[in-house]
Known about the structure:
Elements: H1 2-15, H2 22-33, H3 39-51, H4 58-68, H5 74-83, H6 87-97
Helix pairs in contact: 1-2, 2-4, 3-4, 3-5, 5-6
Amino acid sequence: xxxxxxxxxxxxxxxxxxxxxxxxxxxxxxxxxxxxxxxxxxxxxxxxxxxxxxxxxxxxxxxxxxxxxxxxxxxxxxxxxxxxxxxxxxxxxxxxxx
Length: 98
């Protein structure tokens, strides 16, 4: 059952579009933060940054903080920033370096 919920949350992240309800994104991130981190979860969160590279809204800080709590996100972050440089991806790299 937990795996189904995790898969549903991953799918919700992949489907989420800017014109969707922002509360849906926040709810999914809150549920994901309670799970054991996985590469799939990390990639799904980073993919939101990639889809909206110039977006700088308060809710994106929640995604960033969720990622920063996950062990081992750094390699995926670097890969993401190389694929699609994003405001929050660059901000996260800067936070690691400083």
